[in-house]
Every structure is written in structure tokens, then in C-alpha cells.
């Protein structure tokens, strides 16, 4: 993992000044005079993650020749919204480890995780209202709504083994890809105008986010907790039927289908993902999901190559490779 | 309770057109094409409550001679933020009954309550970004941040028996009064300018909200679940040491203090609020809190009477009476 992290930092070089400003803004925003709040924000600062979404705002700006003084703030806002979804996701997923730092809802309780997420959303929106253009507030409040709808739909579709691939992608897209799309669109468009390049970059972000999510789904089935730096197998545990399993289920005979349903639902199973791997041949489903992710990433490359050559464009190509290298 | 409700509706008469438009906007905003989301928003529509905050936007607008076509939308946004806090509060409080309709987190689970609250916040901010002025987005995102900080502080101060009355009011104010203050300020100021009347109405809203909260704290100690239409005694259950108890504790001898701490913390107690009432003389604390609420409401009346006479001004006076009548 250290290897890929170094690579990402190298990819972020064309926007490293902007990212440094983004981090300063983030620090400033998370500093809150209330000691109880500071305790929590100090803690989440430690699992700051890849900051890929923030970097995409800046890279898409640079690659589209559309960088303003406010892009760093836009990137910080996108990152805060992402942090808020992570904090609330920990309540959702019951994930036990996130980036090897105990998650907020284990150190404190659910109540506090809800409030910290709300605080991060509020901070993000408050900062967006101080920018010269309203585009950021508009696009990101709409995106946050989509995100929530995607999460709610996903929750409603738990243990739903007959979901079509299209429906799966619509939900996973709303949940994950919509924030990538907004990040890329804001980079290319902020403070306004530039509809056409904005739409192109939004489509790039969507495909990037969706392929990222599909790779995540694959890794949750095939990876180990140690490799991932977060709990593996939580999708099966939580009743989330992801693309590889949906594909296997669709093609399976009734006996295999019953076995799959049992692994997800029968009480008292310790390691559901492990049992699923041992009792069902997931290979065709994993291959199908991988092919879909590769197709989306090819689309991403095509869109990136339509931009004029620049160091930022080369970095966007590198981001695509990074997603591939995670395991595809 | 029916009596006071009729009275409130009568008080809202000067702004009933605006309230009808506010409700139409709210319905439209909660309508979402996702069936899973609609299921939930249909449900919360049933516990719509008094809509007092929305009415305050409109009444303060009318009473200040500052009503615009957009005031109904501003009122709907305030109400959505209030709904979001209620939904997330149900996770916080473990309250079992809210307005005699099962709360969201009992019909669904915590996950979904978190997401529904997030959805309501996002909807509210998205709507605010469509208004002609940014004042509403700015004031309400700032207010939401304050709200969260207040809730986090309150959570951090559980079982804190030596909180000063000032500190208690600062936290209760941030948690509750800040949204009342924003509602009243927006009514008087939206779309902008009018700083002085805005500051006056913000102060009115703050005192109104704080006295409302103090009355709530009193009723949680003295009322029954049936009278309140929501679970009584949850403050003691949740370790929230409210103004009446803080006052009694501050004046008590060490034996009584130990008894109070025991009632809050000893394991296995069924009805902590009941036990507290039976074993500790709360009367001086209740009288102190009541006097404080009455003082705040007197300040409210003074501020209201500085406005020119109008039906809306008379209704604001009626709102003050409504808070008194709840039990003071």
C-alpha cells in the first residue's frame, strides 16, 4: 500500500500548491473553539485518507485551464462532504476498522458520530456560501441529496439478489460516483459557465467513481482486512449484494441460489464472505465486474485524452492507472 | 393539548396564506422519486408538529413590514432543518414516542434515520441555493453548525452536575434557541439589509427558543408521557442535567448531591425521573427555572412591543403566551 500512496502523491504534484492550501483550509475549518468538538475533529484529522476527491477538483481545473484562487476552497468543501459521509457511513456499516484508526463511533458512540457528520456537512455548506459564485453550493447540495438517496436505496435493497446490473450501477453511482462527478465538474467549471467541458469532466468523474466502487466491491469479497486497511467482507455481512454476486446469482441454478441466500441470511455464521468464497464459484462474477470496471476506465482514458496535453492531464491518466493497480 | 393547538392556529392567521404556501413547498421537497425515500418522507409528514419556527419566519416578516414572495420558501427551509434535527435527535435521545407516532428509528433502523436526516439537510440547503439572495444559505448553514456544536457539547456534559447556569444556557441556546433566532432574523431581514431590526428579532428568537427549552426541561421532570405526547423523564435517563437539577445540586449538601448522582448513574433503576422526584425536593430548582423562563419571556414581550402594532405583532405576543400556558 505504501507504494501506491507514493505514486498518488507523485500524481498530485501538478497541483501540490493547491492541495497544500486545501489542507490549510481544512485544518482551519475543523478547528472549533468547543473543546468537545475539537477532540473529535483532531481525531478524524488522523484518518485523512487519499484526498483523491480534492485532488480531482484541482487536477480537472488545471487540465481544463480553469484554475481560480477559490479552487482550493472548493476542494476543501468536497473533502469535508466526503469526511461527513465517512463518519456517517461508519454508523451504517458497522465497519470495525477504517484506515487502521478506530472509527469515530467506536471511540465515542453513535450519537456523537451522527453529530460530527452533521457538523462537517454544516461547515462545508457554510464555507461554500462564502465563495464568490453559488455554483459550488448548488452543485454540492444537490450532490449530497443524491448521495443520501443512493445510500437509502442501497439500504432498502439489502438481501435483494435479483437486482439488475443497471439498477445496481444507478444506486452505487448515486452513492459513490456522484461526488466524484461533482468534484471533476467543479474543477472544470467553477465559478460558472463552461457547461460543455463541465459535462465532459462530470462524466469522467462518474465513470471514475463507479469503477472505484466496483473495485471496492471486488476487494471486499477477495481481499483481507490487513491488505485493505479496513474490514473486509462487510458487504456480505451487511446484506449488500454487489455486482459480482448479482452476476453469479443471475446465472446460477436454484440450488446455488439457495446456498447464496443462506450464506447471507442464516443466523450464526462467523465469516460470511469466507464461507461464500469457499462454497460458491465467484470467479465468473468477479471477471464480469472486473470487465465492467475496465470498460469504464477505458472510457475515462478516452475523455482524458480529449483534453490538451499537460502535466495535470498526465496525472489524471495516472489516477486511472491507480484504480487499475489497486487489484484489477 | 387540543386547546393550545387551536390557539396556535388562530395565532397563525395573519400568515395563513404564507403557511399554506410553505406547506406546499415542504410537500414538494419531500416528494422524491425513489420509493424507499418516499416511504420515509410520507411517514415523517405525519408528525409535522406545530411548525412554530416556520410561522415565526412569516410572523416576524409581517410584523417588521418585510414580507417577500420568498418568505414561504425560507420558512420551509427552516422547517426542513428542524425536521432533520428531530430525526437525528431520535437517534440521540432514544426517545420512544414523538408526537405519538413511532419515530423513524423505531420503524426503520438507526442507519436509515441518519440518512433521512442527511437527506432533509441536503434538501434544505439545495432549496436555499435557488433563492435570489444568499442570506438564507449563509445564516442557516452557520446556524446548523451552531446547533451541532450545541448538541455535541450537551452530549459531552452529560452527568456534569456542576455546570454553571450560564454554561447551561449557552449550550441549550446553541442547541435550541439558535434556530429560533435564525427564523426570526430571516423573517425581519431576508433578502438582506435591515441589520438593526434583524438583530432585534434574532434576540427575540433566541429568548423565545431558550425559554421554550427551559419549559421543556421543566416538563420533562414534572410531566407524564401522556400529557407531553412524547416520552417524559428522558433527560434524567440520558444523563442530561438540566437547569432545575443544576440549581438544586448547587445548593444541596453533600448527602443530597450523592443521592442525585446515584439516581442518574446507579445501574438498574427503572424510572429515574420518578425516583428523583420522590427522593429529592426539586421545588426550588423548578421555581428557579420557571423564574428564568418568565424573565426571558418578559424580555420577548418588551422587544415585540417595540414593533408597530399589527395583527402579526399581536400573534407574536400570543406565541409568548402559548409558551407560558404550556405549564408555567
Query: What portion of residues of chain A belong to β-strands?
Result: under 5%
Number of strands of chain A: 0
Q: What is the CATH architecture assignment of chain A? A: Orthogonal Bundle
> Helix-strand pattern of chain A, N to C?
HHHHHHHHHHHHHHHHH
Shape of chain A: globular
Percent helix of chain A, as a range, is over 70%
Give the CATH superfamily of chain A. Answer: Farnesyl Diphosphate Synthase
Q: How many discrete structural domains of chain A? A: 1
Oligomer: homodimer
Summed up, the helix count of chain A is: 17
**Category by helix and strand content of chain A:** mainly alpha
- Which radius of gyration of chain A do the C-alpha atoms yield? 20 Å
Low-confidence stretches of chain A: 93-101
* Spatial separation of the terminal alpha carbons of chain A: 15 Å
Largest interface in this structure: A-B, 42 and 43 residues
Please outline the major beta sheet of chain A: none
Return the CATH topology of chain A. Answer: Farnesyl Diphosphate Synthase
Q: Quick one: CATH class of chain A?
A: Mainly Alpha
Mean pLDDT of chain A, to the nearest integer, reads 89
Can you walk me through this structure?
The structure is a homodimer of 328-residue chains. Chain A is mostly helical and 328 residues long. The first copy, chain A, has a single domain, classed as Orthogonal Bundle (Farnesyl Diphosphate Synthase), CATH 1.10.600.10. Helices cover 74% and strands 0% of the residues of chain A. Chain A contains 17 helices and no strands. The first copy, chain A, has helices at 2-11, 16-30, 35-45, 52-63, 71-93, 104-107, 110-128, 135-156, 165-189, 195-222, 225-228, 234-237, 243-251, 254-265, 272-279, 283-305, 311-325. Chain A starts with a helix and ends with a helix. The model of chain A is unreliable at 93-101 (pLDDT under 50). At the A-B interface, α3, α5, α7 and α8 of A face α3, α5, α7 and α8 of B.
Amino acid at each position: 500500500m505504501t507504494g501506491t500512496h507514493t505514486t498518488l502523491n507523485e500524481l498530485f504534484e501538478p497541483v501540490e500548491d493547491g492541495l497544500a492550501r486545501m489542507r490549510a483550509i481544512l485544518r482551519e475549518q475543523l478547528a472549533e473553539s468547543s473543546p468537545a468538538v475539537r477532540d473529535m475533529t483532531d481525531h478524524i484529522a488522523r484518518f485523512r485518507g487519499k484526498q483523491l476527491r480534492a485532488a480531482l477538483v484541482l487536477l480537472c481545473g488545471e487540465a481544463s485551464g480553469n484554475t481560480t484562487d477559490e479552487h482550493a476552497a472548493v476542494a476543501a468543501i468536497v473533502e469535508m462532504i466526503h469526511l461527513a459521509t465517512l463518519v456517517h457511513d461508519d454508523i451504517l456499516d458497522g465497519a470495525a476498522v477504517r484506515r487502521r484508526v478506530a472509527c469515530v463511533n467506536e471511540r465515542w458512540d453513535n450519537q456523537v458520530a451522527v453529530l460530527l457528520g452533521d457538523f462537517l456537512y454544516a461547515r462545508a455548506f457554510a464555507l461554500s456560501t462564502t465563495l464568490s459564485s453559488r455554483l459550488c453550493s448548488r452543485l454540492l447540495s444537490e450532490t449530497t441529496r443524491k448521495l443520501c438517496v443512493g445510500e437509502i436505496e442501497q439500504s432498502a435493497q439489502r438481501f435483494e439478489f435479483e437486482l439488475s446490473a443497471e439498477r445496481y450501477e444507478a444506486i452505487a453511482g448515486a452513492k459513490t460516483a456522484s461526488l466524484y462527478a461533482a468534484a471533476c465538474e467543479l474543477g472544470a467549471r467553477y465559478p460558472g459557465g463552461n457547461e460543455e467541458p463541465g459535462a465532459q469532466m462530470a462524466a469522467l468523474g462518474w465513470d471514475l467513481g463507479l469503477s472505484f466502487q466496483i473495485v471496492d466491491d471486488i476487494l471486499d469479497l477477495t481481499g483481507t482486512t490487513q491488505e485493505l486497511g479496513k474490514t473486509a467482507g462487510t458487504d456480505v455481512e451487511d446484506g449488500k449484494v454487489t455486482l459480482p454476486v448479482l452476476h453469479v446469482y443471475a446465472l446460477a441454478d436454484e440450488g446455488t441460489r439457495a446456498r447464496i441466500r443462506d450464506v447471507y441470511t442464516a443466523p450464526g455464521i462467523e465469516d460470511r464472505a469466507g464461507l461464500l468464497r469457499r462454497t460458491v464459484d465467484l470467479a465468473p462474477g468477479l471477471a464480469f465486474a472486473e470487465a465492467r470496471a475496465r470498460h469504464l476506465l477505458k472510457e475515462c482514458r478516452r475523455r482524458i485524452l480529449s483534453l490538451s496535453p499537460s502535466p495535470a492531464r498526465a496525472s489524471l491518466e495516472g489516477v486511472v492507472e491507480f484504480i487499475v493497480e489497486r487489484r484489477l
